[in-house]
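Could you help me review a protein record that somebody else here produced? This is what I was given.
***
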Amino acid sequence: MFKSEIYVQRRKKLQQQMKSGLLLFLGNEESPMNYPGNPYHFRQDSSFLYYWGLDEPGLAAVLDVDSGREMIFGYDFTVEDIVWMGPQATLKERARRAGVKEALPIQKLDEIIINAVKQGRDIHYLPQYRPDNVIKIEKLLGIHPRLVNHYTSLKFIKAVIAQRSIKSSEEIKEIEFAVNVAYEMHTYAMKNVKPGKSEREIAGAVAGIANSLGNGLSFPIIFSIHGETLHNHYHGNIMKKGDMAVNDSGAESLRHYASDITRTIPVGGKFTTQQKEIYEIVLRANTESIRSMKPGVKFRKIHLQAAHIIANGLKDLGFLKGNVEMIVKEGAHALFFPHGLGHMLGLDVHDMEDLGEQYIGYDEKTVRSQQFGLAYLRMAKELQPGHVMTVEPGIYFIPELIDLWKSQKKFAQFINYPKVEKYRRFGGIRIEDNVLVTKNGRQILGKPIPKTVKEVEALMH
């Protein structure tokens, strides 16, 4: 946890934004893998962590905006619990760490909420993504489980997003810590990727580094010689010389802040001429995108700039033809670059995604595109100081997508399909950094992780 004053100030600011009503926060419970006594690794809800800091299951909290009353609900451990778990702080002691004076048994939550309902008060809650918390909302408010997320508070959602989007100096230090763990993860992979090794060998060791230096992985590792599959969690392939391995992995800090870094590694230690040509385009899109980041610039503009760089580079190599402005405008480049340039980063690797991308990355001035590729851009609105973003352009040769577009003669005026066919087994390349938007520009967070061709090959040798 941070100091209690930080959580007190966060709640005070939230109270000022909301003005009235009762704010209900449900912490997460443990979730069994295959029976109740064998749970998955516990992960607290990120908004609960942000405002209350308590990283334990079985908790809820209420902030009464009208009276300023703050309540933590939970339970005190019994001797039977302590036999298995060791000495435990009382609920009152845990609440005090969050700057909360009032600690109540979890059973009291029903009474508080039911009384508020009887009084006709507004009860605000955030979208729920865990079934057990959906059922709790049903019990507390009488809303059918299928409709629970239809009645979330938009005002509450927007207030939380506005606050969590701007990272404090304490939060930036946490993200940098997580990036520095990722440095160790990625440099280990570069040094140890060799022909004849399985992907699992590297992915398992990388996960071990995240566990030993931080709080584990911030998301399941993407490590694959089939980098054309954007989120490839299969690790069963044997690497051979001439392959490229995409390593998209990050760590959590001890306070649960995430990093998310991608590097593409030549198996055998050296990129082929063809791989190097494509890699340099992606690298240029990465570095130029970062260079363009500053307050007031729409991230969609930077995404489209990256798309132009990729389209120009692929045109120079003969994959695309015609006017580059039209190629990007019509979306023909998305055959090779079918995803968004990046997303917010913080307590979640896709920060606040549970609250709705339409509120995080878009606003009244920025409407989401329906065009293939551009539609997947998670963040499009103006950058502000304190935003932390991933910047992750890529080029991919996806056989199934190539076959579909080719059969439809889609963008035949722009795409040189005979040339593309020769690269259908090429795979994919992605390069990703984590970037803070500062008052006057931007700052790449953490220790520099090798990403030029020269740097990657030198480390591998």
Observations:
- The chain has two domains: 4-165, 169-460.
- The chain has a mean pLDDT of 97.
- Residues 62 and 112 are 9 Å apart (CA to CA).
- The domain at 4-165 is CATH 3.40.350.10 (Creatine Amidinohydrolase; Chain A, domain 1).
